[in-house]
Protein 1
Amino acid sequence: MTMNEEHDAINERHRNRMRRKKEIVDRHIAEASIDRGVLIVNGGNGKGKSSSGFGMVARALGHGMKAAVVQFIKGPRHTGEEAFFRRFPEEVQFHVMGEGFTWETQDRERDMRKARDAWEISRGLLRDEKIGLLLLDELNIALKYRYLDLDQVIADLKARPAMQHVVITGRGAPAELIAIADTVTDMTPVKHAFQAGVRAQPGVEW
């Protein structure tokens, strides 16, 4: 077989593989006929949980939807996400409700009060049909430490408007939340610059 013939054979095998793959993908797309709001949980120990959530907020705005953000735990440091999305007050409600990471606050009772205040705001947003996408950033941490009643949280999530999407982030997502979610992603760390002594960088970590 000449080099040209081998090249043509490789291309033909590729076309055949892609044709079969397209048939499978097209079939799955055709079978997915339900339109409704989805519940997304981004968990795991790796970087990117909140970043993915904020990416979906931006995506929602691009489609003309109204969005809202409630940040549990995170607090005093102003982030790039907050600075950016506060430029669009008509499109995005942004609520920073925490006072910092739990290892910084070291006050469980105070953290619990802040989490409950954050959930009251969240409950209002979960009843608002105008909110197309709601990001509950670091809610998993509040649930992990039992700052909130898990059964109440799940009931409120289930009672939201039919077309409202909710994204929940944070480590330690409880099994009960994973069970009712539509899409669950576990961020698995492979490497992180911090392990090599690189400080958190603006535009990357915050």
Note: The mean pLDDT is 92.
Protein 2
Amino acid sequence: MSVAIRFAGPADAATLHRFIVGLAVYEREPDAVQVTPAELAAQLAAPRPPFECLLAERDGTPAGFALFFQSYSTWRGRPGVYLEDLFVDEAHRRRGVGTALLRRLAALAVERGCARLEWAVLDWNEPAMAFYRTLGAEPLDEWTTWRVSGAALARLAR
């Protein structure tokens, strides 16, 4: 079975939303998804979408996605790619879909002159970490991700 990778467009919003919900369930946050298919479609149709997304299909069936956006390295003075989410539907796992998505994303990063491709992984997700290591990725153990959101974000903005 072959894996095809293509960019997602507004017409793919329902599929993308289904995968996002699947990812939330996998990451033990089944009620965390707030975005709607309509919002995703509008964002993908925007003149400057806030993200790009690759969709993987196995024999024409949607199998997974990689949602990403441009980052920037101040030290290298070059753009990078930040992979926000990678998800492969359970029925398609261990069939090369995740590898195909990451290979295409790495190729895009190289084509665009990016200095790096990076992402975060939940500390309990050992299967993902083992998979990423097989691709040559390394954890940045000296870095800790920080976030401000919700009420704290509103307070900080005042």
Note: The radius of gyration is 16 Å.
Protein 3
Amino acid sequence: MFRVEERHSWYRSLHRLIFKTLEHELPDWRQRRILDAGCGTGAILKRLGNLEQNVGVDLAPAAIAFCRRRGLDNVREADICALPFADDSFDTVICSSVLYHKWVNNVAGAVRELCRVLRPNGLLLINLPAFRFLHSAHDEAVMTAQRFRKKEVRALLLENGFIIRRLTYWTTLLFPLAVVARTLHKSKQGRDFDAGGFRNALFGKIMSFELALLKSSALPFGVALFAVAEKLRTDKPAANQGRQMR
């Protein structure tokens, strides 16, 4: 990740999706306090900037070490199921490709913990791998415990303190390639987008087109799922607490 995160087409597309979403949902995000929960090697955290205000956490000491190599001192070793922060500490939480991991022993508990540290009406951005049949050797290598369907993510969020502002599959246009690579074992590592050079550039253009589609619509299937959820205010009427937006 540390070697390829800033140039690989899939990571670049994921980061563009996250920051385009921040711009759309929270235009003043640069003045808000943001937690990167499961920050990995720190590429997203570095791009967030504002080291005095924003914070990253990860359970892996190696991840913290790579963050340090990026010059990031605003990182802490912590479990997202037991975050070392007070209630209502952050305006936004980003949890990108974390909840699927074998180290997350209680996914619902982790979502409740992310909700706890968010301020009322704060935003949660999550990215997750989709569809169990896509589980491959690459999933084993990156310690994937589970892949998700849209209805599971919807229930997970609605049952643990959130309303949904956006929920969509993505990496849709490259989905056939992923199926071939993962289920027909056309890739020794089970990777769908292990691309360099021309292929990386081509996949990047395809993903750019898909991100343009995502501006106005949700996609019906894909390799991953992306959600934006809002923490419920505790004083909201019960009738509004199951509300789902686009």
Note: The CA atoms of residues 144 and 233 lie 33 Å apart.
